[in-house]
Write a structure and sequence with these properties.
Strand content: 25-35%
Number of helices: 7
Number of strands: 6
Radius of gyration: 20 Å
Helix content: 25-40%
Largest sheet: 6 strands, antiparallel
Order of helices and strands: HEEHEEHEEHHHH
């Protein structure tokens, strides 16, 4: 399915949010950026998939629950990241350029073992090494109730879509305030969230 994302322009990434392994089976929850119908047709044709369920989102994306059999490179990769003492920090991102990006936390020797174990099956680049920095658990904790209401209204009416489907006036109408006030609420909320994101350090 990662190859499907690579080959189809409508998809940008699939992100593994949670996963659990049972011997030769893997149960996972993904968020996939892209339309449902073509992706579901590809799932039907994937021989290693034992079971799946799709839940579409309001935007052009979906959640995927999937149970599959582990074979080949998939099994090699799953074996490698299950080193004792190692934590894989979700999401694990399968990108449209064919790469997989992940963050792991643990002893240096365990991380080196992962690199060694998967290097025969795929090329590995270590982008950074250092102390784990994630910032706050949830940047929403620093938003006021009114700022969160403004962001929620903006998302709901399409203000942040690639082709903007709403204006500040639309958000102001929902919040029963002026467009200037709506814009200020959004700017303050965006600044708070972005500062917390950057404070966590690079991905």
């Amino acid at each position: 399915m990662h190859q499907f994302v690579v080959e189809h322009e409508a998809y940008t990434a699939s992100r593994l949010l949670y996963g659990h392994r049972y011997d030769d089976e893997h149960v996972m929850l993904f968020h996939v950026d892209g339309p449902r119908a073509p992706y579901e047709r590809a799932l039907e044709d994937a021989p290693m998939i034992l079971e799946y369920e799709l839940a579409p989102c309001r935007d052009d994306s979906l959640y995927l629950y999937v149970r599959e059999t582990l074979t080949g490179a998939d099994r090699t990769f799953a074996d490698a990241v299950e080193q004792p003492g190692l934590i894989v920090v979700p999401p694990l991102e399968h990108r449209a350029d064919g790469t997989i990006r992940l963050t792991v936390v643990g002893p240096g020797e365990a991380i080196q073992t992962v690199v060694d174990d998967v290097s025969d099956a795929m090329h590995v680049d270590v982008l950074s090494i250092g102390e784990y920095r994630a910032g706050r658990i949830d940047a929403r904790a620093d938003l006021t109730q009114r700022q969160f209401e403004a962001v929620s209204a903006a998302v709901d009416c399409g203000y942040y879509r690639a082709t903007r489907a709403a204006s500040l006036e639309d958000i102001a109408e929902r919040l029963d305030c002026s467009s200037g006030t709506a814009g200020e609420l959004l700017r303050r909320a965006e600044r708070t969230v972005m500062e917390e994101l950057v404070r966590g350090g690079p991905f």
